[in-house]
Amino acid sequence: MTAQAMASLSREVLEDAVVDRAPIGLAEVISEAALQTRVDRKFLLTPEEFTALSERLGDQFKIMEIDGLRTFRYESVYFDTEDFEQYRAHRQGRRRRYKVRSRTYADTGLSMFEIKTKGLRGATVKHRVEQAPEQAGELSEENREFLDQVLASEYGEEAPPLSAVLDSTYTRATFVNPIDGERVTCDVELNYANDEKQIAGPDLIVVETKSADGRGVSDRALAELGIREVSMSKYCIGIALLHPQLPANRWSRLLAQRFGTRHDPVSHPTRPWSMVRS
């Protein structure tokens, strides 16, 4: 079976899982389940495991629907320094770390500039502002000012020089529990690219639970199925895949077992590069 055919199996089970659920609109998600400060937990599921999870979530979870669509194409551009300072901060588990990205919702045209920081007890805090879609591939002056404000407020730091270092695309569906604000995002067809190459992800579903304390209904369902949390950042995995010369010991086993790649970093320095977009 080809990689493309395998990937379509993940998309198929995702579509099957969302088709009959009650819908929830974006406005209701924002008002009742925004969870800008939350505990995020990531899991990698096979199509069979994902189907079992969907069945366990029950009727209390609805599916986010916008203009009749229940799965959406996401396009993300990540920013970092020339020597991948934030990638290294995540690899080393530094407390003061952050991610900077532009995220465009391809099906609706909405584009956001986002900074994700770590708050108290490891909770993720998302700061974001809307931007014009054509700004997604660059760090505009307005977004740079917003970034400076966030880092000064959160960490008392100034932002270093940043440029676009990674493009990422995937298809997502979002399960929402409006009772307690819990969300479960489910990503398939993950692809990474830079100006030199493009890499497709495996036939797996990236499931991320987002709850107030990390012990939501979905977390309990995953535990009952015997599915363990993984230490994974889509950004860091993408950088490690595209730049095998960089140290990636924190994700080496995951890369080998689930992404089918051996990671043998070498000692030569990283060559700076820039993203190419149409």
From TrEMBL:
InterPro entries: VTC_domain, VTC_sf
UniProt domain VTC: residue ranges: 38-243
Superkingdom as given in the UniProt entry: Bacteria
Membrane-crossing residue ranges in chain numbering: none
Matches recorded under Pfam families: VTC (PF09359)
Protein name: Polyphosphate polymerase domain-containing protein
Origin species: Glutamicibacter bergerei
